[in-house]
Amino acid sequence: MIVTEANNHVHTLAxxxxxxxxxxxGDSYFIRATxxxxxxxLADGLGSGERANESSSAIxxxxxxxxxxxxxxxxxxxxxxxxxxxxxxxxxxxxxxxNKTFTYSSVGNIRFILSTPSGTFVYPLPILGYxxxxxxxxxxxxxxxxxxxKFLIHTDGLVLPAVKSVxxxxxxxxxxxxxxxxxxxxxxxxLTYIVGQLF
Length: 199
Fold this sequence. Notes:
Layout: E1 2-6, E2 10-17, E3 27-33, E4 37-45, H1 50-65, H2 71-81, E5 88-96, E6 101-107, E7 111-115, E8 121-122, E9 140-144, E10 150-154, H3 163-169, H4 173-180, E11 191-198
Antiparallel strand pairs: 1-2, 2-11, 3-4, 4-5, 5-6, 6-9, 7-8, 7-10, 10-11
Helix pairs in contact: 1-2
């Protein structure tokens, strides 16, 4: 399943597959581009199937309903939302087009990397563990970005041996997504990735 979201500031593409043999994906995401910002929430529910999806889809719905809030507040709301649910790893990315900055926070094994046209890479380290409603520390980072920067955010169902070269060697978002296809065949886990380019 492929979904795109684009405007004059950003072009994104999201791709998702359930674990082999499952009809329901345990990952959920929400992406939205406005004139002021782009927001992306990606959640990987613990385990797979319907109960994993219950946790992850609660996150995507909550972020959709509260997308105007800042990342620090959102990640805390996500943790509270998962009380009495199975739990999930969660990443939230919010890009401020006016100030050309992005803010990112993550708990668990979802990966994020941004590649700039000048050749630098940004990959904020997540907090280990998962959200489950228990008291939790968070780490939120804000960075500036260059126009033309590309990013990739993905759950652990996508295993990439050379993520930097994948980002560097593909010019468009469609090319980048196509180059990831070869890594989507061995589906021992739910798999979701979101690729984007900033203008």
